[in-house]
Task: inverse folding
């Protein structure tokens, strides 16, 4: 029973780490895209 709980805990921690990793990548991508959009908009509005 204890061995089963340890395996379950390990898989839960691994799932949590994977989810946190994907969230981190998502936020990095979101940050890069917002900076790119901001620069594009600044370029458009500086011409006017």
Result:
């Amino acid at each position: 029973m204890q061995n089963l709980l340890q395996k379950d805990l390990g898989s839960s921690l691994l799932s949590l780490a994977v989810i946190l990793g994907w969230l981190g990548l998502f936020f990095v991508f979101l940050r890069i895209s917002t900076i790119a959009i901001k620069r594009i908009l600044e370029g458009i509005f500086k011409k006017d």
The two ends are 71 Å apart (CA to CA). The chain has a mean pLDDT of 88.
